[in-house]
Amino acid sequence: MKLRALLLAISFLATGALAQQASQDPYAEVNKQVQEKLRDLGFYEGPVNGDFGFYTQAALAQFQLARLLPASGMLDKETQAALGVEFEASASTGATAAPQRTE
């Protein structure tokens, strides 16, 4: 339990340094939605900051395993549907946004 608390504390410290980067990330809002959903479902305990880093990826992989989805740790369409996360289409390209790893 102490190790878990230590890892969580390190995560909070590390995300402070990345806060500016996350705010400039075009996928930060989508990443926050993913973090919130994972937190609500009990898979994620880190900060909801839009940083798709190690802890978010690990939580996503655990969610995928629990739902019998391929455990890639990335947000594919099947995982997106299972989480109930929707993306807005890009106005300039018509493409669908997807979270990008920042680490």
Summarize the structure.
The protein is mostly helical. Helices cover 54% and strands 0% of the residues. It is built from four helices and no strands.
Word description of this protein:
This protein is mostly helical and 103 residues long. The chain has a single domain, classed as Muramoyl-pentapeptide Carboxypeptidase, domain 1 (Orthogonal Bundle). The protein contains four helices and no strands. The two termini are 26 Å apart.
Unreliable stretches? 90-97
Task: Examine the coordinates and then state which fold CATH places here, giving the name of the CATH topology.
Answer: Muramoyl-pentapeptide Carboxypeptidase, domain 1
Q: At the first level of CATH, what is the class?
A: Mainly Alpha
The helical percent reads 40-55%
Strand % is under 5%
End-to-end Cα distance, whole Å, is 26 Å
Second CATH tier, the architecture: Orthogonal Bundle
Biggest beta sheet summary: none
Determine the number of helices (DSSP H or I, runs of at least 4 residues).
Answer: 4
* Secondary-structure element series: HHHH
Radius of gyration: 14 Å
Q: How would you describe the shape?
A: globular
